[in-house]
Amino acid sequence: MRVLVVGSGGREHAIVHYLSRSRHAPEIFVAPGNAGTARLASNISLPARDIDELLKFAKSKDIDLTIVGPEQPLADGMVDSFEAADLAIVGPSAAAAQLESSKAFSKRFMSEHGIPTAGFSTFDRSQHEEALAYARKLGAPLVIKASGLAAGKGAVVCETMHQAEETLVSMMKGRAFGDAADEVVIEEFLHGEEASLFALTDGTGYCLLPSAQDHKRIGDGDVGPNTGGMGAYAPAPVLTDALVARACAEVIEPTLEGMRTLGQPYRGFLYVGLMIGPDSRLNVIEYNCRLGDPETQVVLPLLETDAIDLFRACTTRTLSSLEVKTYDGSAAIVVMASDGYPGRYEKGKEISGLNDDADCESGATTCVYHAGTRRTPGGGTVTSGGRVLGVVGKADNLRAALDAAYQRVATIKFPGAQYRNDIGQKGLKRISSTT
Q1: Separation CA 326–CA 296 (nearest Å)
Q2: CA geometry: angle 427, 373, 12, nearest 5 deg
Q3: What fold, for 2-94?
Q4: Over the Cα atoms of the chain, what is R_g?
C-alpha cells in the first residue's frame, strides 16, 4: 500500500503520523513535507500546487491513495486531475471546493439552501462605495472577508466603522490579499462562541470526527491580529451531543444534499466553522474543504479507527458502513511560532529540545508536530516558517492534556519563540460550570 500526502505543515505531519499507525503498514510519501515528516515517510521535493508533476509521480510510483492537506491544490483541481487518471484521492473537486475558495459562493449557497449563517452582501472591487454604504448600514461591529483563499487570514473583525472603512480601502483599493479580494463579503457580526465540526464524506454517507476549538488571535485573551491558529483542543465541550445532532440536521446534511442538487457532489473532509449563540442558536461562519490546522493535530490523535480503512471507505463510497471509534479523552495543542509572526519573521533559528525518536511514539502523552521546520546538512533542525511546531498533549481529560502540552513546550527552545499561555481556558471553564 503506497500513500501520497500533499502538503508541508503540521496538519500533514499529523496525517502522516495517523497513517503510520495503520495496521496496513503503508509506504508513505509526502510532497514536499518537512523535517518531522522525514522521520516517518519519504519527503518528495515537489510543491503542493504542482499538480502535473504530482500526478506524474503518483503514476510512476503506483500510488494507491492520495490525501491532500492544504486548500489551494484542491481549489486548483488536483482531485479532478487524479480522478481523471483513475487514481484514488481524498478531497473535493474544484467545483465543490468553492465552498471554501469562494466565500461569496458559500454564502449564496447557504442562503439558497436554508443553512443558517450571518446576514451578508457581496461586492466586487469596482463597488467600493456600495460596500461602504452597506457597512455603514450594518454598523460596527461587523466582519469583512476576502472572498478568495487568503491562508486563513482574510477575515477581519471590525470593531469600529473607522476600522471597517480602512479595511475596505485596504482590500478593495490597496489590494491587500491580492486577487483573493477581487470580491469581498461584508456580514453581520455574530455573538457567541466558535467551534469546529469535522465530517468525512463520500458524497452521500458521512462520518463525524471529534469537534475542536481553535485559537486564532496571536495573543493571550484573544487579542492581536488573526493567525493561522495558535492552538486548539478536542473535543470542544461547547458542542454538546444535542448541538452536534442539530448541526448534522441543520448544516451538514443540507450542505451535502445542496451540493448534490448542484451536480457538484462533495467528497472529502468538510470542516464547518460554527458560532454557537447565547441562545444555543447555530450559525455557519465558514466552510473549509479540508482538515484545519492546527485542529487536525488534536482530532486525528483521538481516532482509533485505522487510517487506511477510513480513507479507503471515503474513496470507495462505503463510509456509511464504517464505524468510527474515538478515544474517550482529550487532546490539546500549543503552537510555538517565530518572533514577529503573523508579521515579518526570520528563519533559520536553531531548535533545541526535540526528541524525534520519542515524540509521538505509541502510548506517549505528548507529540511534537513539525510545521515550519527544515533539516540542516549537519542533521539539526531550524525554523523555516511562522508557525514552527505544534506541541500536543493527550490525556483522559482536557486539564491533563493541556498540562502535558505545556510541560513539553517548556523543554523546547529557539530564539524568539512565542506561544499563547491560555489555550483551552474556555473549555476548562465550560467543563467546570457543568460539574
Answers
A1: 14
A2: 60
A3: Rossmann fold (3.40.50)
A4: 21
Q: Residue 263 class from Cβ within 10 Å (0-12 exposed, 13-18 middle, 19+ buried)?
A: exposed
CB 66 within 8 A of CB 3: yes
The CATH number for 193-433, chosen from 3.40.50.10300, 3.40.50.720, 3.30.470.20, 3.40.190.10, is 3.30.470.20
Instruction: Answer whether residue 69 shows pLDDT above 90.
Output: yes
Eight-state DSSP code of residue 262: T
Per-residue pLDDT tens for 256-301? Answer: 999 999 999 999 999 999 999 988 899 999 999 999 999 999 999 9
Q: How does pLDDT run across 88-106, given as a tens digit for each residue?
A: 999 999 999 999 999 999 9
Round to whole Å and give the CA distance between 423 and 427. Answer: 9
CA–CA distances in Å: residue 230 to residues 225, 286, 323, 407: 11, 19, 32, 17
CATH annotation of 119-188: 3.30.1490.20
| Amino acid (one-letter) located at 366 | T
pLDDT one-digit tens code per residue, 49-68: 999 999 999 999 999 999 99
Amino acid at 429: K
Coil, helix or strand at residue 212? strand
Q: Which pLDDT value is given to residue 385?
A: 95
**Predicted pLDDT at 306:** 97
C-alpha cell at 179: 486577487
C-alpha cell at 215: 485559537
Place of cell 508536530: 369
Q: Cell numbers of 307, please?
A: 487510517
Q: DSSP secondary structure string, 64-128?
A: SEEEE-SHHHHHTTHHHHHHHTT--EES--TTTTHHHH-HHHHHHHHHHTT--B--EEEEETT-H
Which run of H or E residues covers position 158? strand 155-158
Q: Give the residue extent of every domain in the chain.
A: 2-94, 119-188, 193-433
Give pLDDT, residue 278. 87
User: Is the pLDDT at 120 greater than 80, yes or no?
Assistant: yes
Q: Minimal CA–CA distance to 231: which of 292, 283, 189?
A: 292
Taking CA atoms, 158 is separated from 135, 138, 225, 276, 335, in Å, by: 10, 12, 11, 20, 26
- Tell how strand 65-68 and strand 89-90 pair up: parallel
Whole-angstrom Cα distance, residue 338 to residue 76? 29
